[in-house]
Specification:
The structure is a homodimer of 258-residue chains. With 258 residues, chain A is of the alpha+beta class. Chain A has helices at residues 2-16, 23-30, 114-123, 125-151, 154-171, 186-193, 197-209, 225-232, and strands at residues 34-39, 44-46, 55-61, 64-69, 75-81, 100-103, 107-113, 179-181, 213-216, 219-222. Chain A has 8 helices and 10 strands. The structure holds a DNA duplex (30 and 30 nucleotides).
Chain lengths: 258, 258
Amino acid sequence: MTHTSLILERFVRKMESRCSLSPNDREAVLALPVMQRTYQPNTYIIREGELLQRHCAFIISGFAIRQKLTNVGARQIVSMHLPGDLLDLQHLYLNYADHNVQALTLMEAAEIGRPALRRLVLRNPRVATAMWIDALVDSSISREWLLNVGQRDARGRIAHLLCEFAARMTAAGMASDSGYELPMTQEQIGDAVGLTAVHVNRTIKALKAENLITRDKRHLHFHDIEGIRAIAGFSSLYLHLDQITTDPEDRPGDERGA
Amino acid sequence: MTHTSLILERFVRKMESRCSLSPNDREAVLALPVMQRTYQPNTYIIREGELLQRHCAFIISGFAIRQKLTNVGARQIVSMHLPGDLLDLQHLYLNYADHNVQALTLMEAAEIGRPALRRLVLRNPRVATAMWIDALVDSSISREWLLNVGQRDARGRIAHLLCEFAARMTAAGMASDSGYELPMTQEQIGDAVGLTAVHVNRTIKALKAENLITRDKRHLHFHDIEGIRAIAGFSSLYLHLDQITTDPEDRPGDERGA
DNA sequence: TAGCGATCGTGACATTTGTTGTGACCGGCG
DNA sequence: CGCCGGTCACAACAAATGTCACGATCGCTA
């Protein structure tokens, strides 16, 4: 049906933002069997420890998070995903899930069976490259989060989260120039940056008091984005937003390793 | 020369611990052009921001770390690598390095040119799968570190680091049953778990006082590994040590996505 | 052999962050 | 309409962690 093909068009666009595809590749992607599915807020999509013979989900609308729990139940959100993100490449080749994946808001996803996806990767090198890059960017973000939580103080951490989200929402065409809808509660922000909800509250209050941001319900408005960036020490390089690969073989002549 | 082939044998073994290879695959890996190289302690192997048209390194002996710096110079170690680890898959398909890679000790590495490695991946699906898995395990470790730094207290963080290292060193055949050589200073431990060197010192002192560990120069000895595991809340599942894939196509019949 | 830099050890004190508890607000639902 | 759960706000106090300062040790090299 045409609805399915709209979704796959979007998936193609996502892949092409990572690696340019041939007409063949495009066709193969468009032929993928997908199943659309809706998740209520807070529903688990994958549970840690679960045996994986599932599918990978592509987010159509809404937001998802990935998180882990310590033995004593403390929760760390390890990543956030927005519409257009591929939801778990991270588990494509593993037997057991090592973390939980959860819908943050009401969420619609297109699910692609693992076997179909693996076959696509086998037969279409440029698609494979696009998926590699997607997974690598994911890892890069994860490293930046580790730096954030490990080395910045509360202000810096929160400011950094807001900046990253701004950059990603903008890239997804979901932000106005001065703000966006932030779909997280203060408690969730705390779980993402390793702080308690109370301290998140204090810190955001301070940011508001300095006229850097305002928050109205879920809408976040930047009054001084440069100020926030400075506090965060934010640079978007780690998002690899401009990463485009044209040749999976990497033929540019300089074969130093040879 | 025979020395080179010894190194590649080891590389093959690494790949085979991730995905079983065909004789063809093995041959292709063994035919890779490698260049051996020695790095002095603290030498940079890759620098953040650098344009990547380099090689990937396979560690023969010694240790390496990957790290990032904040704008104010605070350092977060985001991962550690030991002999037998593939040192930067993380950058295989990216244009710019998003973090630094540094030798921790005197280190010998075998360097494989990026083009050669990419070609190998294109032509040998099982090798590609092995490398996917390697990269995914890397990400999984990164997530666990994030959980560690974000949610555990100082004792838990350090205990967890020690447990992880024990598990990995054991898997690499480099640990005795009661301990191993830990190649990090207290300051480096601090940079890995998001604490100051002073506090690392305090915490380790407490662990010693409770007769859980002793440290003699660089040698770490566990007196009560179960005690340490309990403090860390350690479970080795996230290391995916038993992960072996046999079929890149994932054909087991259940094509739910279809 | 003496000196030097890196690492470890430790104490006193400062600061950040967590904990507990309580109330206001708001939106959904009986 | 009124209740109720979730979220936000905020205050007082407790605990964890950072900062600064200094000395001890040890291996290396001039």
